[in-house]
Amino acid sequence: MSKTKETSTNFENKQLLIQCCSEVYAIEMISGQWILSILYGLVGGKLRYGELRKRIPEITERMLTLQLRKLESNGLVKRTVYAEVPPRVEYELTPSALKLTPILKQLKDWGEQHKEVME
Amino acid sequence: MSKTKETSTNFENKQLLIQCCSEVYAIEMISGQWILSILYGLVGGKLRYGELRKRIPEITERMLTLQLRKLESNGLVKRTVYAEVPPRVEYELTPSALKLTPILKQLKDWGEQHKEVME
DNA sequence: CTCATTACTTACATTTTTGTATGTACCATA
DNA sequence: TATGGTACATACAAAAATGTAAGTAATGAG
User: Fold this and answer.
1) pLDDT, position A14
2) Share of chain B above pLDDT 90, in %
3) Residue B15 or residue B51, greater confidence
4) CA nearest B23 in A: which residue?
5) 3-state secondary structure string, A9-55?
6) Strand D nucleotides within a 7 Å radius of protein CB atoms
7) For residue B4, which nucleotide's C1' is closest to its Cα?
8) Between B27, B106, B110, which is nearest A31 by CB?
9) pLDDT: is B19 or B117 the higher one?
10) Containing H/E element for A82?
């Protein structure tokens, strides 16, 4: 009982943190081993599942699916299923995700500067 | 043997990804449950360990220490130890971390907009 | 000698994330 | 009937992140 309670309290704290603090919220959305690779894969336009997989050779199907679902439920990626056989599913960035890309560019620039400072 | 090799390969892939891709590098630096809370805690100026802890009531000492070490080794926080008893240790943001804060602000703004889009 | 203060460290447990391997549904084609 | 292509799902395992609880070193105050 106390175990369960503590755990749920921790979880609630985390949720609270994510909700109340928009930076945390934003970073939650772009964190995850493969999220950025997928976002960058889709910057050029919509891609099918298999095409995306080819662009990120190291990713496993399981991880690609999981991360795409996360991106979809977070409103960064739109998923379109065509009722065909074999199935065809296309993924594309949402307008909101497109607005995020210049900020990622800045993060990238900062990262490069910071690397030099650090050497 | 094959286990070990695969594991080390995965790790090397991750390291490679972090090294070659500055966005990933940057996001690695700011990801972690408490990293942002700590950065924001220090935006106002240097703080002692105990003061920082008071500003982030939910954090445990272990986590605060771990994350501060990560921030320090990543060059985002400077740690100064005074040879006193009881010990006094002060933490402050590096110039590089200060340059990061406007980008975090943008992430925050994006997060807020995105929340509204999502509701 | 005992206690308080500060900034930790250490051992261990739990939770979350990521990886591996295999299976599935659909139907057209051979 | 068997095979192939596509986009997954599922069970299980390993690794990484986070949490809990307790201990430590140094020394000045009482």
Assistant:
1) 54
2) 72
3) B51
4) A108
5) HHHHHHHHHHHHCHHHHHHHHHCCCCHHHHHHHHHCCCEEHHHHHHH
6) 4-11, 14-23, 25-28
7) D14
8) B27
9) B117
10) strand A77-82
Query: Is pLDDT of A67 > 80?
Result: yes
Over chain B, what is the mean pLDDT? 85
Share of chain A above pLDDT 70, in %: 83
Q: Which residues of B4-32 are buried (b: 16+ CB within 10 A; e: fewer)?
A: eeeeeeeeeeeeebbeebbbbbbbbbbeb
Give the mean model confidence (pLDDT) for residues B80-90.
94
CA separation (Å) from A48 to A85, B116, B117?
14, 28, 25
For chain A, what are the domain ranges?
A: 32-118
Q: Which nucleotides of C are covered by protein (CB under 7 A)?
A: 4-11, 14-22, 25-28
Letter for the amino acid at B21?
C
What is the DSSP secondary structure assignment for residue A59, as one 8-state letter?
Answer: -
| Of the options 2.115.10.20, 1.20.1050.10, 1.10.10.10, 1.25.40.10, the CATH number for the domain spanning B33-118 | 1.10.10.10
Nearest to A117 among B17, B75, B114 (CB): B75
Rounded to the nearest angstrom, the minimum Cα separation between B66 and chain A is 18
Residue A7: its pLDDT value, please?
37
* Domain spanning A32-118: CATH 3.40.720.10: no
Answer for the pair B78, B72: CB distance below 8 angstroms, yes or no: yes
